[in-house]
Amino acid sequence: MRLVKLLANLGYGSRKEMQAAIRNGWVTDKDGNPIKADSKLAHEDILFDDEPLDPPEGSVILLNKPLGYTCSMKDRGRLVFDLLPARYRVRKPALSFVGRLDKDTTGLLLFTDDGKLLHQIISPKADVAKVYEVELDRPMTGGEADQFASGEMMLENDTSPLKPAELEVLSETTARLTLHEGRYHQVRRMFAATGNHVTKLHRAQLGGLTLDGVEEGQWKLLGTADIDRIFGDSA
Ligand code: URA
C-alpha cells in the first residue's frame, strides 16, 4: 500500500496532511532518515514523529475496561475508545468490538479490524467460553447452578432457551459464571430471573485469554500466541 494511504488509513490525518508530513520529514526509517512517499519499507521499520507506526490492519487489541465506559462509537459520556489513542477511532478498516460489555461491566474487551477473526470468535461453533465474576445484592438460594446448567432456562422476551452455563459459587453473594453464548445483558438477566440483582460484573476471561498484566484502563496489542489462546481452553 502506498505510504500516504497507509498513514491516512491508520488515522494519522488526511491524505493531504500525510503528503505534507512526508514532505516535512516527519516520516522516517528507524535511523531517523526521512523516507519518500514511494518507500517500500516494511510497516515495522517506519516511524512517524519518532514513534513506531500503530499496528497494521488485522490487529487485535485487548482492553481492561473500567466502570462507566460505553461500548459505542458515538454515545454521550465516556466511551471505551477514549482509552485508546484518538487515531484508533478513525482507522480504516474500522476497529469493532468483539462482543460488548455494559457500561457498568468491567474487564476483558477485545477490538479488531479483522472481520473474519471477529466472526470466528463469536461463532457458536468455536464455543469460546466467557468467564464472569459476579457480585450479588442478596445471598443465592441454592438452585441457581442447576437452573443455569439445565439448558432449559428461558429469559423474558427470548425465543430459545439458554445454553447450559456453569456457575461456581464462591460465597453466598459471589460467583464465577461461564457462558457459551453472548446475549443482551445475559448475566444480569439470568440472576434477575432468580430474583437476585447483580451489583458488580467483571469479565475475567475469554477462552483461554485473561487480563494478566493489563491494569484497569490499560490495553495491549495481542500477538499470535495470545490470539491462539482465545481458542484454547478456559482455565
Ligand atoms: N452480561 C451482562 O449482563 N452484561 C455484560 O456486560 C456482559 C454479560
Automatic annotation (TrEMBL):
InterPro entries: PsdUridine_s_RsuA/RluB/E/F_cat (IPR042092), PsdUridine_synth_cat_dom_sf (IPR020103), PsdUridine_synth_RsuA/RluA (IPR006145), PsdUridine_synth_RsuA/RluB/E/F (IPR000748), PsdUridine_synth_RsuA/RluB_CS (IPR018496), RsuA_PseudoU_synthase (IPR050343), S4_RNA-bd_sf (IPR036986), TruA/RsuA/RluB/E/F_N (IPR020094). The keyword Cell division does not apply. GO terms for cellular component: cytosol. The keyword Isomerase applies. One of its GO terms (molecular function) is 16S rRNA pseudouridine(516) synthase activity. Residues 60-193 form the Pseudouridine synthase RsuA/RluA-like domain. One of its GO terms (biological process) is enzyme-directed rRNA pseudouridine synthesis. Signal peptide: none annotated. Its EC number is 5.4.99.-. Keywords: Isomerase, RNA-binding. Responsible for synthesis of pseudouridine from uracil-516 in 16S ribosomal RNA. PANTHER family: PSEUDOURIDINE SYNTHASE (PTHR47683:SF4), PSEUDOURIDINE SYNTHASE FAMILY PROTEIN-RELATED (PTHR47683). Belongs to the pseudouridine synthase RsuA family. This is Pseudouridine synthase. It comes from Pseudovibrio axinellae.
